[in-house]
Design a protein that fits this description.
single chain; alpha+beta; 1 helix; 24% helix; Pilin-like; Prepilin-type N-terminal cleavage/methylation domain-containing protein; N_methyl_site
Length: 219
C-alpha cells in the first residue's frame, strides 16, 4: 500500500491563482471607479436640478411683481412711457427685492448676462428706487449672480390685446406692459426649461389710466 505525499501547489497552479486574483482586483477596481463616476454625475445632476429650482422660483417671485411707474418729464413721440425696458437679451423694471436677500423694498432691477470668471453669468442688478425716476448706472449697482456658465439668454413678451395673444422679442407698446415674460436660457450646453412669468402690477404704483390700470394690452 502506497502513501500519497502532499507536494503542495505547483508553480503553474500559483500563477493561475495569482492571475485570477489580479483579474478579480481589476474588476473590483473598475466597478468602484464606475460607481464613483456615477455618483459624481448623480450629484452634479442633483445640484443642477436644485440650482434650477431655486433660480426659477426666485425669478418667478421677483419678475412677477412690477411697478407701473411712468417716466418723468416730456416724452418723445412713440416712446415707452413706463419705467420698463423689455429687450431680446435683457429686461429692466421696477419691482420688489425680497427681504431675505438683505435688500427688501422697491428697487430698480435689471436681468442680463455679464462676464464672470471667463464665462457669461445670469446677473441681477438692483439699485434703490428713487421717486424722481432716475435710472441708475447699472455698472455700479449691486449685483446678484443667479447662474454661471450661461450660454444663451432670450426674452419674449406677450401682448394680450390681439386674439390670439402675440409674442415679440422686444416690448414696443406705448400704452401697456406685457402680460407675461418668457425666458429661454441654456447653461453648459444644456437648455433650461422654458419659464413663463405672468406680470402683476404692484398695488399703489402710479401710471394707471383714469379708467384703471392698462396691463398686458387689455382693459
Amino acid at each position: 500500500m502506497t502513501r500519497r505525499t502532499n507536494a503542495g501547489f505547483t508553480l503553474v497552479e500559483l500563477l493561475v491563482v495569482m492571475t485570477l486574483l489580479s483579474l478579480i482586483v481589476l474588476a473590483l477596481s473598475s466597478a468602484l471607479q464606475s460607481m464613483a463616476q456615477t455618483q459624481e454625475r448623480l450629484d452634479a445632476r442633483l445640484t443642477r436640478t436644485d440650482d434650477l429650482r431655486v433660480t426659477s422660483s426666485f425669478l418667478q417671485g421677483i419678475l412677477g411683481r412690477v411697478a407701473q411707474h411712468r417716466k418723468p418729464g416730456v416724452l418723445q413721440a412713440g416712446e415707452n412711457p413706463f419705467l420698463f425696458s423689455g429687450q431680446a437679451h435683457e429686461i429692466a423694471w421696477i419691482g420688489v427685492m425680497p427681504a431675505r436677500y438683505g435688500a427688501g423694498g422697491r428697487y430698480f432691477l435689471r436681468l442680463a448676462l455679464e462676464g464672470e470668471a471667463g464665462h457669461s453669468a445670469l446677473v441681477l442688478r438692483y439699485a434703490p428706487w428713487a421717486d424722481d425716476g432716475t435710472v441708475p448706472d447699472w455698472s455700479s449697482a449691486n449685483r446678484h449672480v443667479l447662474a454661471t456658465s450661461v450660454d444663451t439668454l432670450d426674452f419674449a413678451y406677450e401682448d394680450a390685446a390681439p386674439e390670439p395673444p402675440a409674442w415679440a422679442p422686444v416690448w414696443a407698446s406705448t400704452d401697456a406692459l406685457p402680460a407675461r415674460v418668457r425666458i429661454n436660457m441654456s447653461e453648459g450646453g444644456r437648455p433650461w426649461p422654458t419659464m413663463v412669468v405672468p406680470l402683476r402690477v404692484l398695488p399703489g404704483s402710479s401710471g394707471a389710466s383714469a379708467g384703471g390700470a392698462v396691463f398686458g394690452g387689455s382693459r
